[in-house]
Specification:
Chain lengths: ~400, ~325
C-alpha cells in the first residue's frame, strides 16, 4: 500500500502541461520574455545589483510603451554563483518559461557552463556579465553567445602599461587572481602587457578557488614575496578580504583593483588607509563620483532606482552598470524590429552602433560587427581618492 | 502484516506503466526533471541497501555519486568515450571506492560511521579542485560534445525523441532494472544476511554469517548504485563541477531514503520526488518571490520539517488501512 501512495504522489507531482508551438518562443505582439541567472545569494551576491538595475530599466522602458509595442518581462533566477545551478536555471528558463533570449547572465564560469546547451538550442545569450575573451572571440563555434564587459586581458594590459609608465624600475608586482578563466585572462593580459619586463617585475602570482572561504594565506604569501605593488584580480568578498588582510599584515603596496570589484560600494568596505590611491578602470558612470552628480544619465538612473528598485541605493554602481547593458539590449531589441526572431536579435547585437549610452562614460561607443563581438572596448583609468573614484588620463582602447 | 508478493508485482507493473506513460502527458521541462528523479531514485535505492538493510548510515553518498559523475566526465572529455559506455565503468569505479570506504568503516558504528562518511563528502570537493588538470577544477567539465544526440535529440528505431525525452527514457530504463535487481538482492540470502548483521551482529556471526564480508559487500553494491546515479546525473546536467555534488546532496539523499521508508526500497520513488520537487513546492507557497533568496531558504527548511513530520504519519495510516483490509 505504501508504494501505491508513492505512485499517487508521483502522478500528482507531474502537472500536465500542453506544449505551446508559436513561431518564436517568448514573443507575442504585446510582450517579450527575457531570462537571466545570477548570484542573488552567496559570496558574489553584490553582483545581483546588475540584474536588479537591468530589471528597473526594463520597467522604465515598459512604462514608456515598451520596445516596438512589446513590454519586456525580465525573469531571473538565483544560482548563488554556482555554474551547475546556472545550468539548471537556464534549462528551466528555456524549456519551461519559454524565454525568447537570455540577457546579462552573471559570471564567467556560469556562462561557460551554459554555452554548449544554449547554442545547441539556438537561444541567444546576449550581453553576459563577463569579460572573458572567449565570449567575444569564439563566435564561430558559439554564434548565439556574446558578452558585454571590456575584455579582462586588455584591462590588465592597461594596468601593465600604467606601471611601465609610472614605476618601471622599482615595481615588484604580486597578483592575487581567481583561478578560473576570468582570473587567468587578467593574469595573462598583465604578463603580455609587461612584455620583456614580465620576469623582472612580476614577483609572485597566487590563485584562489572561487568557492574557497577566504584568501588570507594567499595574501600572506604575496606579502612575503616582498612585492610593493598588489594586483587584486578578485571578485566580491575576496577582493575585500585581500585588502583587509593586506592592511592587517601591515602591507602597504600600491593597489590595482580589477574593474568587477571596483564598485564604490565595495571599495568603501575596505580599510581606507590601505586603499587610498588605488588604481582601477571604469567604463560606466559611477553615481557616487561627484563629477557625475549633475549628469543627465546618472540623474535618470537615480529616478529609475527611486521608482522601480524598492529600497535601492541610487549610488549603487552595480544598478547603473545593469542599466547600461539593459539600455544596449533595449536598443538591440528595437533594431531587431517588429518581426522579432532569435536570428534577428543576434543580427542586431552583432551590428551595434550606439554612440551615446547615457550610463557609460561620455565618448564610449558600444560597437560590434559580426566578426568583432566585444561591445565595450573603451575604458578610462581611475584613482581612489578620499572615498571616491577620480577618472584620469582620458579614454583608452581595450580592443583585443 | 507486510504487503504480499503479488501486491509488490502489481506495484512494479503499475509503476512501470506510469513511467512509460508520463512523457506523453508532461512538458519537456518536467521530462528532464523526472529524469533527475530517476537519478535520485537509483541513488536512494542504493543508499537503502546500505543504510536501511545493512544498518550502516552513510552521509557521504553525494561523494560516491561524484565519483561516478567524474568517471563519466573524465572518460568523455579526456578520452572521447560515448556517454553510455561510461555508465558501467562508473558503476565499477563507484563500487570499488565503496569497498575501499567500507573496509575501514567496519571499525565504525552508527553515528561514528555517519560522521566519517560525512567527512568524505566534505573533503571531496577540495580533492576535485586540487587535481584541476584532470577534473577541470571549479570550472568543471562540459560533457556536451560527447553526449548521445549532442543535446539535440536522438532517433531510436525510427522514432525521433527530443533530448529531454531521451534523457527520461535513458534514466528510467536503467532505474527500473536496477530497482528489480535491488529487490531480488534484498530478498535473497544476501539480503537476509545483511539484515541479520544489522539486527544483531553477534547472533548473525553465530549463525555463520561473515559479518565483515557482508558489510563491505553492502557498501560496494550501494556505492555502485551511487556511481551509476552520478554518471546519469552528469549526463542529464551536461556538466560536472565540484558544486554539482554538494554536501547537501548527501543529506538530501538520506532525507529521501528516510521519507521513502527506512529499511524498505519501495518508497524510494517518493523520496526521489521529494528531493527534486521540494524547491518547486516552496515556490508555489504564497508570498515567495523566487528573486529573493532569504525567505526561500527559510521556507525550504520549514517545508522539509513539515514533510518529515507528516509523511511518516501518512505511511502509518496507509499501513493501518492496508492491514485492516
Amino acid at each position: 500500500m505504501k508504494k501505491l501512495a508513492a505512485l499517487i504522489v508521483l502522478l500528482a507531482c507531474a502537472p500536465v502541461a500542453l506544449a505551446s508551438s508559436s513561431a518564436t518562443p517568448g514573443v507575442s505582439a504585446k510582450e517579450v520574455v527575457v531570462g537571466s541567472s545570477g548570484p542573488l545569494s552567496g559570496e558574489a551576491a553584490a553582483a545581483a545589483g546588475v540584474l536588479r538595475g537591468a530589471e528597473a530599466y526594463f520597467k522604465y522602458v515598459n512604462g514608456r510603451g515598451g520596445v516596438n509595442g512589446r513590454k519586456i518581462t525580465f525573469k531571473y533566477l538565483d544560482d548563488a554563483y554556482d555554474p551547475s545551478k546556472t545550468v539548471e536555471n537556464v534549462r528551466q528558463l528555456i524549456q519551461q518559461d519559454q524565454v525568447f533570449a537570455l540577457f546579462g547572465v552573471v559570471g564567467t564560469n556560469s556562462n561557460l557552463a551554459i554555452r554548449d546547451f544554449t547554442n545547441a538550442a539556438k537561444v541567444p545569450v546576449v550581453f553576459s556579465q563577463s569579460g572573458a575573451t572567449t565570449f567575444g572571440k569564439d563566435y564561430v563555434k558559439y554564434p548565439y553567445t556574446i558578452g558585454y564587459l571590456p575584455p579582462y586581458a586588455e584591462e590588465a594590459e592597461i594596468y601593465a602599461k600604467h606601471i611601465l609608465a609610472t614605476n618601471p624600475k622599482k615595481a615588484k608586482i604580486a597578483v592575487l587572481y581567481q583561478s578560473d578563466d576570468y582570473g587567468k585572462d587578467l593574469l595573462a593580459g598583465l604578463r603580455r602587457g609587461l612584455g620583456s619586463k614580465n620576469a623582472e617585475l612580476l614577483v609572485k602570482a597566487v590563485g584562489y578557488d572561487p568557492t574557497t572561504s577566504d584568501v588570507q594565506s594567499q595574501v600572506a604569501d604575496l606579502k612575503a614575496s616582498g612585492a610593493n605593488t598588489f594586483m587584486v584580480f578578485a571578485f566580491g568578498k575576496f577582493a575585500i578580504q585581500a585588502v583587509v588582510y593586506a592592511n592587517k599584515l601591515g602591507w602597504k603596496p600600491s593597489l590595482y583593483i580589477n574593474d568587477v570589484a571596483s564598485a564604490t560600494a565595495i571599495m568603501q568596505l575596505m580599510p581606507q588607509s590601505t586603499v587610498q590611491g588605488a588604481i582601477s578602470i571604469a567604463f560606466g558612470k559611477d553615481p557616487a563620483t561627484p563629477k557625475w552628480a549633475n549628469d543627465p544619465g546618472t540623474k535618470l538612473a537615480g529616478q529609475i532606482i527611486k521608482k522601480y528598485v524598492p529600497g535601492g541605493n541610487p549610488k549603487d554602481g552595480f544598478l547603473i552598470a545593469g542599466m547600461a547593458s539593459a539600455y544596449s539590449f533595449a536598443d538591440a531589441l528595437k533594431k531587431a524590429g517588429k518581426n522579432l526572431t532569435r536570428e534577428g536579435l543576434m543580427k542586431a547585437v552583432t551590428n551595434m552602433n550606439e554612440p551615446a549610452n547615457p550610463f557609460l562614460l561620455p565618448g564610449i561607443k558600444v560597437h560590434t560587427t559580426p566578426k568583432f563581438r566585444f561591445p565595450v572596448t573603451q575604458v578610462s583609468l581611475q584613482r581612489w581618492q578620499k572615498g571616491h573614484w577620480v577618472l584620469f588620463g582620458g579614454l583608452q582602447s581595450a580592443r583585443p | 502484516m507486510r504487503p504480499t508478493l503479488a501486491a509488490k508485482w502489481v506495484a512494479v507493473v503499475a509503476g512501470t506503466a506510469i513511467v512509460i506513460a508520463l512523457p506523453f502527458v508532461v512538458s519537456q521541462f518536467r521530462a528532464v526533471q523526472l529524469a533527475t528523479v530517476a537519478v535520485y531514485f537509483i541513488a536512494i535505492v542504493g543508499l537503502d541497501i546500505l543504510t536501511g538493510y545493512s544498518g550502516q548510515i552513510s552521509l557521504g553518498h553525494g561523494a560516491l555519486m561524484a565519483v561516478g559523475g567524474y568517471t563519466t566526465g573524465i572518460l568523455m572529455t579526456h578520452h572521447g568515450w560515448p556517454d553510455l559506455a561510461t555508465i558501467p565503468v562508473a558503476a565499477l569505479v563507484g563500487g570499488a571506492v565503496g569497498v575501499a570506504v567500507g573496509i575501514p568503516a567496519l571499525r565504525l558504528h552508527g553515528l561514528y560511521l555517519a560522521l566519517a562518511t560525512f567527512g568524505v563528502a566534505v573533503a571531496l570537493p577540495t580533492i576535485l579542485k586540487k587535481f584541476d588538470h584532470f577534473t577541470g577544477g571549479s570550472t568543471g567539465l562540459s560533457l556536451f560534445s560527447h553526449l548521445t544526440g549532442h543535446g539535440v535529440g536522438v532517433t531510436i528505431l525510427g522514432h525521433r525523441l527530443t533530448n529531454n525525452d531521451w534523457l527520461y527514457a535513458l534514466t528510467w530504463s536503467i532505474a527500473i532494472p536496477l530497482f528489480l535487481l535491488a529487490w531480488w538482492l534484498v530478498s535473497s540470502a544476501f539480503g537476509r544476511s545483511i539484515r541479520a548483521v544489522r539486527d544483531n551482529e553477534l547472533a548473525a556471526a553465530a549463525s555463520g554469517v561473515n559479518r565483515a564480508t557482508y558489510k563491505v559487500a553492502a557498501f560496494g553494491v550501494s556505492a555502485a548504485y551511487a556511481g551509476v546515479a552520478g554518471a546519469l546525473y552528469a549526463v542529464v546536467s551536461t556538466f560536472v563541477n565540484p558544486d554539482t555534488f554538494p554536501i547537501t546532496l548527501s543529506l538530501y539523499l538520506l532525507v529521501g531514503a528516510v521519507v521513502g521508508g527506512y529499511g524498505s526500497i519501495w518508497g524510494a520513488a517518493l523520496g526521489a520526488l521529494l528531493i527534486q520537487f521540494l524547491d518547486d513546492i516552496v515556490d508555489v507557497l504564497p508570498g515567495i518571490d523566487p528573486k529573493q533568496a532569504g525567505p526561500r531558504t527559510f521556507f525550504f527548511g520549514a517545508v522539509l520539517v513539515v514533510v518529515m513530520i507528516v509523511l511518516p504519519l501518512l505511511t502509518r495510516l496507509t499501513n493501518r488501512v492496508y492491514t485492516r483490509s
